[in-house]
Specification:
This protein is α/β, with parallel strands linked by helices. About 40% of the residues lie in helices and about 10% in strands.
């Protein structure tokens, strides 16, 4: 995951976990802007190297994928508890796909925390965000990529159904409930607090956070890679 010291990540000299681990010269980096599990998994099936999956937010598979990845089309019906459960099932599906690979696979909590991991997968660290929360003296909790759903709900361009009658993409998000509003609010508040402690920039870990977390996970990553 790249560091961000500006909200758009346009700084000239960002770093990443891979760079800070000192593995950029031997690793095949399949991450990138707008990356999601689907795009990364296509690379995972074409390598015999050990895989370290730095967790994406599960719901990001719906962004910019509607025509290419039809199986990920999903219409939300206003039952936000069901959406949250759907997100969990989507994550379970991703973890199951990783567990079925012939490669050795490890996961690290990042944009989303690690959860529902089969025994075949090594958990290097369950939550980058909780590590940062502890560094900032905050309570820990479950962390997820809240800005993805927020964008999809209010951005007016990301999760849609196709209307054949007039060839338009139509936003189908219903009115938000207190349940989902609280989840969104609480995670954004955590990120605001991390930003005040110089560990986040907007919705991303900054350079300092990358450097600290890379040191925190380095030995476990090297142990896994060299096993």
């Amino acid at each position: 995951m790249q560091s961000f010291d500006t909200s758009q990540g346009r700084e000239p000299n960002p770093t990443s976990l891979l760079q800070e681990w000192g593995l950029a010269h031997i690793a095949d980096n399949v991450s990138g802007r707008g990356s999601n599990f689907v795009r990364q998994f296509r690379h995972f099936t074409d390598t015999d190297l050990p895989i370290v999956y730095v967790m994406c937010e599960p719901l990001v598979v719906y962004e910019n994928n509607m025509k290419r990845f039809g199986k990920y089309q999903h219409k939300y019906n206003g039952k936000w508890q069901e959406l949250w459960q759907h997100r969990r099932e989507l994550n379970r599906q991703h973890m199951h796909q990783l567990a079925e690979l012939p490669n050795r696979v490890a996961v690290i909590g990042a944009h989303s925390d690690v959860s529902d991991v089969p025994d075949a997968i090594t958990v290097i660290d369950p939550s980058w965000q909780n590590y940062l929360r502890l560094e900032a003296g905050l309570d820990t909790g479950y962390n997820w990529g809240v800005e993805v759903l927020h964008r999809q709900m209010f951005g007016g361009e990301l999760i849609y159904r196709f209307s054949k009658s007039d060839d338009r993409w139509i936003n189908t998000f219903p009115k938000a409930s207190r349940f989902i509003v609280d989840l969104i609010h609480d995670q954004f508040e955590v990120w605001k607090a991390l930003e005040k402690h110089n560990l986040f920039c907007d919705v991303h870990p900054n350079r300092r956070a990358n450097e600290l977390y890379a040191q925190h996970t380095l030995n476990s990553v090297l142990e896994f890679v060299n096993a």
